[in-house]
Amino acid sequence: MKQQMLKYFGEVFGDTEGVEVFFAPGRVNLIGEHTDYNGGHVFPCALTIGTYGAVRKRTDRKLRFYSVNIDKRGVVESSLDDLVPSEEAGWTNYPKGVIWAFDGLGMKLDCGMDLVIYGNIPSGSGLSSSASLEVLVGAILRDLYGFDVKNQMLAKFGQYSEQHYNGVNCGIMDQFAIAMGRKNQAIFLNTDTLEYEYAPLELGDAKIVIANTNKRRGLTDSKYNERRGECEAAVAKLMTVTDISHLCELDEEQFEKYKSVIDDPVLLRRARHAVSENQRTLRAVAALKEGRLEDFGKLMNESHISLRDDYEVTGVELDTLVEAAWKADGVIGSRMTGAGFGGCTVSIVKSEAVDSFIENVGKEYSKKTGLTADFYVVEVGGGPQKL
Predict the structure, then answer these.
(1) Into how many domains does the chain fold?
(2) Rounded to an integer, what distance in angstroms lies between the CA atom of residue 200 and that of residue 193?
(3) Is residue 43 part of a domain?
(4) Active-site residue, 263 included
(5) How far apart are CA 293 and CA 113, in angstroms?
(6) Residue 141's domain is classified under what CATH number?
(7) CB–CB of 39/193 below 8 Å?
């Protein structure tokens, strides 16, 4: 890939002298969905697919960006003196947002750059192509301009820029999983305290299979921010009877005790999902550590049902893929992953059944939705790196 990226750079900007190449992974969350902005636990892992960047410093203050994936846009030009989000900037609002976040903390770039991006994460799939790009740019800035920034801070900068520059009220999970990824390990993260531990992903004779619905969705204009608002409204009601600041501070027993103050049935369902999903995640990680993979799979299935019925973020495409997976031979567990409203499912499938799983689930999905799903048998990779 390094040679390929240098080739891309040379084609766009004329030569490759002094060009460096970097990589940041995508991520998939195995369980713990929509808990990360509710002060709960998540269990994601970094992938070996992700975003590549070929970059070179300039001698002036110009920023020139080119995406191989969106080549019809051509080179998008900007400047260090124009770190303001705009509709015309399109996808370049993401790298500009990270530069803006660094700049705001006194880490000012002394010159601009030329940057060519290529991602092999399907865009809009829910595997965090935007967070991958943010962490990639953070790693580039750190290396190229000599900033002293730990990987955990790259995650925080990415989240801050997405929230305050790009207007997506995201949690910390995506950027954290990408910045802190470790090969063959998932990250058990408490999003409230950022305490974390690595847990070996020992799946025996099983594989992680991601299925992309290929239903386009945009995070900003999805109901993501609406769900956050509903959870905050539920917390406000619960605060009248108990001292909490996040839904996931409650376990299921405490929630049952206090839930009568949530007089709106929609808010009640949203809160119930956050509380139960957090507890499921705790149980799932314990099951995996004890080698109880079947129990882990059952909790994945329960997670999807809660996301479908209580949180209402699945939709016909995700439900069709998951329900087809539940019927397929060799499936240990399957659920939607990511924000929802399209995007991907994640399944744990016995190795010998992977081919038939892809064929049968794909066939059923096409028949019901008229769309074609893409399947990825993924490996668990490490964090950002210079190639």
Answers:
(1) 1
(2) 22
(3) yes
(4) no
(5) 47
(6) 3.30.230.10
(7) no
